[in-house]
């Protein structure tokens, strides 16, 4: 009789029988290992959670201190039942990690969400040798080839210079994307204040506490400033804020949106985006296929995204690939 699979897709999430735990489960479970603190991977209500210390802190900020009955920071290799687990940087957001599971003589790396481009707001991706590599496929189509993020930020700064009478509102996910955009702005020479929607303040403050130099940040409120005072300024907010009256407090705003999906013009038009910024915290097609090639796993398991194209590419390369069909994951947190 063949040995059971080291990880099994279940309705709750990806399950490890030998360790009796789930990775990024979508429903409350007794024991969860979490790759990062985005809401489609990290949910409240589990009995016990193991994650990097930063992910645990971010979950507490987002969900409250009682988001789980028990927390365990990941430190080195840990034995859980008959499985050994370790956490390795994923390059996605602060605290993000790949989870390596060694069981039954098989090494599995669950990447969660990951990126291979430089991101000054988090630790870079670390290749982890494995027999089975579980990859996301958010941008798993050959058409997705993300530009240099510095050129996208230069577009924003050029627009600010050309339209000094207008405010520039940049839609960015509150955790990860916002801080990355801020760091990119600082790297490209923007030394002035950056104004933030209230939903971003606590998360940015935590990044600062962790040594991420975000510079001069201020709340985007009208308590101390008139509408005209925001002319020529950059304001960051969750994209949902643009659908409310909140955006009307700024002078003739240029609506921007930082997302890998801004490469799709139809999506930009649907959201009323005047200045799309193609900035993603996920691997694009070249980096996804490069990662599989470099790791050279015996099997590639593909999840949450364009599974079919990645499966087909692997087949053409003579590689074994399996779609997991896990539900509940967003294409890219917006």
The CATH topology annotation of the largest domain reads as Metallo-beta-lactamase, Chain A
**Helix coverage percent:** 10-25%
Second-tier CATH architecture of the largest domain: 4-Layer Sandwich
Say which CATH homologous superfamily of the largest domain is assigned.
Answer: Ribonuclease Z/Hydroxyacylglutathione hydrolase-like
Uncertain runs:
none
What CATH first level of the largest domain would be assigned?
Alpha Beta
Number of strands: 19
Structural class: alpha/beta
The number of helical elements comes to: 7
**First CA to last CA: what distance?**
46 Å
User: What share of the residues does DSSP label as strand, in percent?
Assistant: 15-25%
Protein name: DNA ligase-associated DEXH box helicase
Keywords: Ligase
Organism: Paracoccus jeotgali
GO molecular function, one term: RNA endonuclease activity
Please give a handful of descriptors for the protein shown.
334 residues; alpha/beta; Metallo-beta-lactamase, Chain A; Rossmann fold; seven-stranded mixed β-sheet; six-stranded mixed β-sheet; 22% helix; globular
């Amino acid at each position: 009789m063949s040995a059971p699979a080291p990880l099994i897709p279940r309705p709750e999430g990806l399950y490890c029988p030998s360790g009796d735990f789930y990775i990024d489960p979508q429903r409350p479970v007794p024991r969860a290992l979490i790759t990062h603190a985005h809401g489609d991977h990290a949910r409240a209500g589990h009995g016990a959670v193991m994650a990097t210390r930063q992910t645990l802190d971010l979950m507490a900020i987002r969900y409250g201190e009682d988001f789980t009955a028990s927390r365990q920071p990941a430190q080195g290799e840990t034995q859980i039942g008959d499985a050994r687990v370790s956490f390795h940087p994923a390059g996605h957001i602060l605290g993000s990690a790949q989870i390596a599971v060694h069981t039954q003589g098989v090494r599995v790396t669950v990447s969660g969400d990951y990126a291979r481009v430089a991101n000054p707001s988090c630790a870079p991706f670390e290749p982890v040798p494995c027999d089975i590599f579980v990859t996301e496929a958010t941008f798993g189509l050959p058409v997705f080839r993300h530009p240099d993020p510095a050129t996208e930020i230069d577009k924003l700064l050029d627009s600010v210079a050309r339209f000094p009478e207008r405010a520039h509102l940049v839609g960015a996910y509150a955790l990860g994307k916002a801080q990355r955009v801020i760091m990119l702005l600082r790297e490209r020479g923007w030394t002035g204040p950056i104004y933030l929607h209230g939903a971003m303040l606590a998360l940015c403050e935590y990044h600062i506490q962790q040594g991420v130099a975000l510079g001069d940040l201020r709340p985007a409120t009208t308590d101390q400033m008139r509408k005209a005072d925001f002319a020529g300024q950059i304001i960051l907010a969750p994209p949902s804020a643009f659908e409310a009256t909140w955006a009307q407090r700024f002078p003739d705003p240029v609506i921007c949106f930082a997302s890998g999906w801004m490469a799709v013009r139809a999506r930009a038009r649907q959201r009323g985006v005047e200045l799309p910024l193609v900035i993603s915290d996920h691997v694009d097609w070249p980096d996804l296929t490069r990662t599989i090639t470099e790791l050279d796993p015996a099997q590639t398991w593909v999840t949450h995204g364009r599974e079919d194209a990645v499966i087909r590419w692997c087949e053409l390369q003579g590689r074994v690939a399996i779609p997991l069909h896990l539900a509940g994951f967003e294409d890219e947190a917006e």
